[in-house]
Amino acid sequence: MSATPAATPLVSEVDQLLQSLGVPRAAYNGGTLAARSPITGEVLAQVPQQSAADATAAIGRAHAAFTAWRNVPAPRRGELVRLLGEELRAAKADLGLLVTIEAGKIPSEGLGEVQEMIDICDFAVGLSRQLYGLTIATERPGHRMMETWHPLGVCGVISAFNFPVAVWSWNAALALVCGDSVVWKPSEKTPLTALATHAIAQRAIARFGADAPEGLLELIVGQRDIGEVLVDDARVPVLSATGSTAMGRAVGPRLAARFARGILELGGNNAAIVAPTADLNLALRGIAFAAMGTAGQRCTTLRRLFVHESIYDQLVPQLAKVYANVQVGDPRTAGTLVGPLIDRMAFDGMQKALEQSRALGATVHGGGRVEGVGGADAYYVRPALVELQKHEGPALHETFAPILYVVRYSSIDEAIAMNNAVGAGLSSSIFTLNVREAELFMSAAGSDCGIANVNIGPSGAEIGGAFGGEKETGGGREAGSDSWKAYMRRATNTINYSTALPLAQGVTFDV
Ligand code: NAD
């Protein structure tokens, strides 16, 4: 059933934004997917969804595009990503605002998300001249051995609502310079920012010219069943899937069954340790951003805090004060630091975790619904600070909302053990001025996460490093460092430039 959204000021504002970003009206009118804003809860647009057959056709176009794109020299492919970065710069204000409206982020975070897209484009442009393989010493005289990196094929991207556009860019910018085409299935909760990003990318393609084949960047809007088409299609050799661990559990085995490569970027349950020597002012600010920023809806959000018993009674009351005073509300209002939850399901999940905490005897500060802001379908909450006697119950699992569990510890080994005692393995941090503790935390015997920070919180990564986590976070790595290798296939080449044919390992075979 399609309907037309009521003509409210926000609906008109979004229509104007989409127009200025170059999205055709047919792409967000008359469809069956209701795009909402968590700021007011209202329906902004009715987006047409693609069918399974449409998704299969999109993969077909992307596959055809790949067979041409792989032959375009990598530095030339980098030129397309350079243009994409330029188009994103030009669209930054509008797209950032759209992220705010559709995902509920405060403006600096909406703009920050677009800046992250620009940053990864810059990174990928440089990378387009650095897809290095090794030359390897061989044991055979008159031979040379080397490795070559080749484009892999269609890269599927499934993304989550909380970074509605940056996650696409982390994958797409690398995939494009690596010679892959991309098919993107964004979150069904954030189709408008995806349509806008797609329009921006099409402008870059148009400027790039005929070397960019049709189908190079495809967008398929729909629910998880459309994502499943990407998961199961043999023409998609690499799939980057960002979302909950439950999604990864469904997707991982299906990819494995057809031997496809998965870049799984799943849930986190991130911790920070505050040690006796910590700079408490700095820790307080680091904790506040990491735990309450984005209304607790980052995969790297700080969810568990281990505070040394010697400073607990100093730090935790100060933290409770910060929690009580932080401005919650419409993210577009000056001074707001905590915007809305994405929807009712997120609110219910948060309340359930708080009830479980109370049943364990925890002291719960905050956590209630903030009334009088947004409409009946908008869910604003005071961030919750939950003092637990033990590291147990809901603290062991990710609840995608602003809840920070606080537990006392007495030895660094105990704190590191608690850091590692959960299924997820995404991000972690320690606040300490003690170099022994800091190094231990980052060592082989320390945090088991993909990200381990010192004197900053676990959230707010830069694109230069490889991003991702271990265990139930899925093991994928995206963005910087050598993450690009996941988007290419490696060939080992041995070349004989002698007249003899010596065999390796001293094997003889004289015919
Ligand atoms: P979600 O799992 O509900 O959905 C994510 C995406 O997966 C959506 O596009 C959805 O349609 C699709 N999907 C769901 N089940 C699928 C299936 N069986 N097959 C194919 N596609 C499927 O997640 P969400 O609520 O949008 O996002 C929040 C979650 O994402 C949190 O757990 C958060 O920690 C995680 N996340 C992780 C990272 C990371 O980099 N590790 C980044 C952002 C978010």
From TrEMBL:
Keyword Hydrolase: no
Molecular function (Gene Ontology), one example: aldehyde dehydrogenase (NAD+) activity
Root EC class: oxidoreductase
EC number: 1.2.1.3
SUPFAM superfamilies reported for this sequence: ALDH-like
Sorted UniProt keywords: NAD, Oxidoreductase
Domain called Aldehyde dehydrogenase: residue spans: 31-490
Active-site residues per Swiss-Prot or TrEMBL entry: 265
Pfam families xrefs: Aldedh (PF00171)
Keyword NAD recorded: yes
Gene3D superfamilies, alphabetized: Aldehyde Dehydrogenase, Chain A, domain 1, Aldehyde Dehydrogenase, Chain A, domain 2
UniProt cross-references to InterPro entries, sorted A to Z: Ald_DH/histidinol_DH, Ald_DH_C, Ald_DH_CS_GLU, Ald_DH_N, Aldehyde_DH_dom, ALDH7A1-like
Family membership noted in the UniProt record: Belongs to the aldehyde dehydrogenase family.
Subunit structure: Homotetramer.
Protein name: aldehyde dehydrogenase (NAD(+))
